[in-house]
Amino acid sequence: MKQYLKTIFALTMSATMLFAAVGCSSQEPTSDPASDEQQEATSGEVLTMATNAEFPPYEFYEAGDVVGIDVEIAGAIAETMGKTLKVEDMAFDSIIPALSAGKADIGAAGMTVTEDRKASVDFTDTYVKASQVIIIKADNTEIVGPDDVEGKTIGVQLGTTGDIYASDVTDNVERYNKGFEAVQALAQGKIDAVIIDDQVAKALAADNADVKVLDTPFTEEEYAIAVKKDNTELVEQINAALAELKESGKLQEIVDKYISAE
Fold it and tell me: Is the entire prediction scored with pTM above 0.85?
């Protein structure tokens, strides 16, 4: 009898341990932080903007953060789309490759629509008018207008439309990664002039008494936001957001905030 009771007890304990083991194996798996980050990155809740933060007042650093016209416009667009904005700073000529590789959603960096760029990316509606201007040394009396830079040594920021236009009028183009580097070279007498966007020129010249900006524009142009080729849905969403920002006056308010401060 005792042996029978021992057998029953042993069977009961075995069943209890089996159920406990099954219960443990059916518990929810613990969260993997790396997996959570990947899920967040692909959730569509973030709009990643590729820019070049060497282009005041459109994008530049202030207290460690990238700020400026393009950043605020992109932020307003992201908010309209129900997303948060993430800014990635990189070399200007890396922006289009980043879009093509899917490393960023939009490119906003005072980017002019050109046929060459349209072959690689799509563009939204334009959001601001701009122009390319000429910066010269303050005591220069030889260069007074666009025609006078022909054949001169011209400094430009690599990959910008200033780079393209300068190549049309001279074979002596000096290319710099940053606009202020070109202006420094000008102040030091290493080049004859700089061709760059008008508001950027004003901001850079304001910090250097040795140079000045000519009044006559070199070219007239418009800026737009670049998007990966054939991403029609995103282009349409951004255009809708831009239209809303224009109608409400918010877009002009952002531009005036920076331009009027120059």
Answer: no
Tokens of 89: 């700073």
According to DSSP, residue 55 is labeled B
Question: How do residues 125-179 score in pLDDT, each as one tens digit?
Answer: 999 988 999 999 999 999 999 999 999 999 999 988 899 899 999 999 999 999 9
Sign of CA dihedral 94, 242, 245, 219: positive
Other Cβ atoms less than 10 A from the Cβ of 251: the count is 22
Tokens of 2: 């005792």
For 154, the 3-state DSSP assignment is strand
Question: How many Å apart are CA 111 and CA 134, to the nearest integer?
Answer: 18
Separation between Cα atoms, residue 133 and residue 59, nearest integer Å:
18
Residue type, 91: A
Percent of the chain with pLDDT over 70: 82
Locate all alpha helices (DSSP H) within 26-114, ordered by sequence: 33-41, 69-80, 95-100
Helix axes 232-248, 69-80, angle to 10 degrees: 110
pLDDT at 33 over 70: no
pLDDT tens-place string over residues 223-253: 999 999 999 999 999 999 999 999 999 999 9
CA atoms within 13 Å, Cβ hemisphere of 81 = 25
- Of 160, 161, 133, 138, which is closest to residue 149 (Cα–Cα)? 133
Distance CA 262, CA 248 (A): 24
Compute CA distances 111 → 29, 88, 199, whole Å. 47, 15, 13
Question: Is the separation of the CB atoms in 159 and 90 below 8 Å?
Answer: no
